Amino acid sequence: MMWFSYTIDLTLPRDSTPATDHVNGKAGEKRKRQFLDVTTGTLGIGTFKFRRSVADCCTKPYHDDYYLLRWLRARNFNPEAAEKMLREGAAILANSGRRDLDFRTSKKVNYMKDSRSLTFGDKLLSPRVALRAGFFVTPTRTSERQGRIQKISIRTDTWFELYCLPKLGVISRSMKWREKWEVETLNTWEPPEVIKKYYPSGLAGFDKEGAPVVVIPFAGLDMWGMLHSLNKADFIRMTIKMIETYQGIAWEQSKKCGQAAGTVSAIIDMENFNLRQYAWRPAGEVVLSLIQMYEANYPEILKTCYIINAPKIFAIAFSVVKNFLNEYTLNKIKIFKNDPRKYQHLLLQIIDDNQLPKHYGGTMTDPDGDPTCPSKIHPGGKVPKSFYLKNADDKGSSLTPDSFCTIVVKKGEKLKLPYIVAQEGSFLKWDFKTEGHDIKFGVLCKNADEKDTVVIPIHRVTSHTVDEVGVITCPEPATYMVVFDNSYSYLRNKKLHYSIQVTPPIKISMLSDEEVVVKDI
What we know:
six-stranded mixed sheet, 14 helices, globular
């Protein structure tokens, strides 16, 4: 018999200073006190218990107090949920019937505690191969003549997944995703010219703890132009490349400034945000797919996210987006309307003024005095039609003139337009304008019980000065009633141009499903 085992050091690093974080509710605060005393920075008995419960999969030197607290904070200091998240993130798939690592039961081994008896009658796995592959184990017996390995504990950190598992033909879902998108070689990939010129993003500097601060002028992203100038796969690759770049910078900063610098702070500027282009289905699909990609493959790299200069229309967009974010990510997002007095002083509390563009309250400018620092933070912009592909197809756009209807809503009357939604999660989109005068607008829902529910209260909109564009998610099959109300006007008819569509739920599996073929996207 041969046993592969670990020697676990349960002592705590002396220089570890656990970070504090926001915890939701009184129950969360009570749980937090079991793990961390925020006044003294000392650990509670709960942290010691948690360390022991995950000791089999937290064996590297960097698996310190800060690392454990990161998982606990991510699950609101619920140790069972934190352990589940940690272990599921480290799950691997064991292939059967190949001349490599083979479990007799041909089952998945998701956790180190779920180890299986192994055989290598067909030289599937020998102690020498296991050790050479980098399992970092200490066998109790070293004779390779033994015909059986009783157990093996599988390391699941990133280094192990990248370099050890492929040697044995074993690969995780995350690794399959990385291989499919060739993440490890993206640093040598040359993006198309249109992305290099018009992809808005940049590293402003570092916060007071050394973490990188990324600024994204979101309104500078012309999704319509981008997706008419290149394929979706290239846009996705560019986004992955940027995330990997910023994550790499954070990793280097953590070596110099400590673990608190190992995450990324983001400032997303929504000034002049236009919802209309995201009512176009291809753009919406890409954005929501990228959000899912981030959630599935880059957990806990976000330190905090400030969404600033958000117009009122942003609330509609965010009501859709937040359905694809888990609550732990949502807790890190802070949203501010278009009022610099509300957010600039908060940014300066965490970022030194010389690391923040003057446009956002700091002192940093470009050499020519530009306060937005375009030399560091690419502003993006509208993509010229000269970049558009010759076979670019406008089919499916909700923005074409042909998709609009024109009608006169007479004085003192209402126009009610019913739309039947058959699938849960479908989208109801609208784009309308009136000539000369405003009108009231709202959305009602009638379910199977024939009861009306107000989805959007009927309210007055200035659709004669700016187009009204919006979208809602339909949580259940029902009949949705779009209402244009002119009953308050006794003198004027209202000429209305509108486009209303119901689109099916977006399938956002294209970035995470291992069956996807990248070239077909």
